[in-house]
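Is this the right way to post structure tokens for a design question? Let me know if I should format differently. Anyway, here goes:
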């Protein structure tokens, strides 16, 4: 994509190896409810937003939750996840260098994450707020979360660019589906779950060596 308008980065599993950290509160809360979170359900949560994750979790342990149950569970998981995040967030291979390289080229950048703003702010202490022109979080898209295109479309609108001239960088089927639906070309770097092949998807094993020239060549 020689006419590259912007680069739109996912966070969990793409920049940060944080999906494994999310395991801690999710499995703990399932046990707190008297159940066990299955691997199949955990994999379905990857890349999703908090309401979807909570619905999957309650269903997996066989509980029909009230709205209050959903809210209490989300609040508990958010508090516990913040504790885990503050203890240290590991980078995905090559991610820190790739961010800096693309930023240095002058191409506009956005962070587009399903994680809510409060936890994203904790993560940005590690990633660096100054690297992004725009950040779009999971609680800022009026419920139109990934795999719907709105998170990526909103980032493009805020940047004043055409989503079809952007490269999104993603790791999960949910995130990739959102970026493709928005019209982006997607650099797919799978982390914890496999991503199916499809239109406008270029696969790479890691972000090592990625810079603006690599992205323009997609």
């Amino acid at each position: 994509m020689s006419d590259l308008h912007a680069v739109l980065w996912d966070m969990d599993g793409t920049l940060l190896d944080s999906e494994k950290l999310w395991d801690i509160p999710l499995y703990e809360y399932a046990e707190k409810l008297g159940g066990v979170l299955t691997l199949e359900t955990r994999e379905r949560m990857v890349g999703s937003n908090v309401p979807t994750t909570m619905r999957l979790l309650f269903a997996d342990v066989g509980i029909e939750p009230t709205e209050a149950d959903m809210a209490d569970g989300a609040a508990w998981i958010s508090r516990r996840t913040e504790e885990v995040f503050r203890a240290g967030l590991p980078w995905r291979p090559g991610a820190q260098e790739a961010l800096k390289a693309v930023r240095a080229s002058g191409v506009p950048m956005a962070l587009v994450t399903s994680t809510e703003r409060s936890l994203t702010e904790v993560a940005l202490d590690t990633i660096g707020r100054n690297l992004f022109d725009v950040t779009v979080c999971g609680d800022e898209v009026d419920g139109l979360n990934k795999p719907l295109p709105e998170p990526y479309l909103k980032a493009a609108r805020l940047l004043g660019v055409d989503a079809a001239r952007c490269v999104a960088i993603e790791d999960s089927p949910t995130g990739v589906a959102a970026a493709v639906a928005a019209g982006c070309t997607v650099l797919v770097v799978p982390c914890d779950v496999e991503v199916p092949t499809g239109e406008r998807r270029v696969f790479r094993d890691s972000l090592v060596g990625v810079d603006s020239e690599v992205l323009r060549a997609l």
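Format looks fine. Someone answered above. Worth noting: The two ends are 5 Å apart (CA to CA). The mean pLDDT is 95.
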